[in-house]
Design a protein that fits this description.
The complex is a heterodimer.
Chain A lengths: L2 H23 L6 H14 L2 H10 L1 E5 L6 E5 L6 E4 L5 E9 L5 H20 L3 E3 L4 E2 L9 E2 L2
Antiparallel strand pairs in A: 1-2, 2-3, 3-4, 4-5, 5-6
Chain B lengths: L1 E7 L2 E7 L4 H16 L3 E5 L5 E3 L9 E5 L2 E3 L1
Parallel strand pairs in B: 1-5
Antiparallel strand pairs in B: 1-2, 3-4, 3-5
The chains are: A alpha+beta, B alpha+beta.
């Protein structure tokens, strides 16, 4: 590898590392443009039925990949996910979010993809509430995470 | 064109590449490995609102989304 190619590679790696560091540590509230951009992305990834639900009520239902359980995701960047029974009544609520200070659409999309593709794994790290406060799934796991 | 979408505080950052361009594919693969190495979850968009988690780089994926690590909120 030539010196120039090596330098270019190092610059690219440094740039990527800075971007990732910024994503994970930025504490500024997402701007209005960021919120709008995230909602546009969310709509691209929703099914037609979910998009209709979101457009009318700012919430949509997802089906858990492992148990077939129905959950309801509501608009917001820190809102919980309601687990529903067969009658559509709330059983309990789960709360998990992506790291970083992300806009609402990104958070809802992350929740949708997680429940629809690795339900059991993500609920294992989520906080749960049955109406009497939030609790972690395991006392041994101070801050369990998914994603490395 | 294929697109890699990285969730961030601006909403997202996008990188497009031509799957027929060897150098661009190599750069996209490097980005994939770097992001997943940092803990990002990669998912590709399927039909009708479905998505699939991808563990290895797929140059044929039209849209790949990178989600930061998840934690109890």
């Amino acid at each position: 590898m030539s010196a120039l190619a090596c330098a270019n590679f190092c610059v690219a790696m440094l740039g990527a590392a800075c971007l990732i560091f910024t994503i994970l540590t930025d504490t500024r509230p997402p701007s209005r443009q960021a919120q709008e951009k995230s909602l546009a992305l969310l709509r691209r990834w929703l099914s037609p039925e979910q998009a209709a639900q979101y457009n009318s009520k700012e919430q949509f239902d997802v089906i858990g990949s492992d148990t077939g359980t129905r959950y309801r995701i509501r608009h917001g960047h820190m809102t919980s996910i309601d687990q529903l029974d067969s009658a559509g009544d709330e059983v309990c609520a789960w709360r998990f979010v992506p790291e970083g200070n992300l806009a609402a659409g990104d958070c809802m999309l992350a929740q949708k993809i997680a429940v629809e593709t690795f339900e059991t794994k993500v609920l294992a790290i989520a906080n749960r509430s049955e109406g009497n406060g939030w609790r972690r799934p395991s006392a041994e796991q101070a801050m369990p995470r998914i994603g490395g | 064109m294929a697109t890699q979408i990285i969730m961030d505080h601006t909403g997202d950052t996008r990188h497009q590449f031509d799957p027929a361009d060897v150098a661009a594919v190599a750069e996209a693969e490097r980005r994939f490995k770097e992001l997943t190495g940092y803990g990002f979850i990669a998912a590709k968009r399927m039909d009708d609102g479905r998505s699939e988690i991808v563990k290895t780089f797929d140059p044929t994926a039209e849209e790949t989304l990178f989600i930061p690590r998840l934690q109890g909120g």
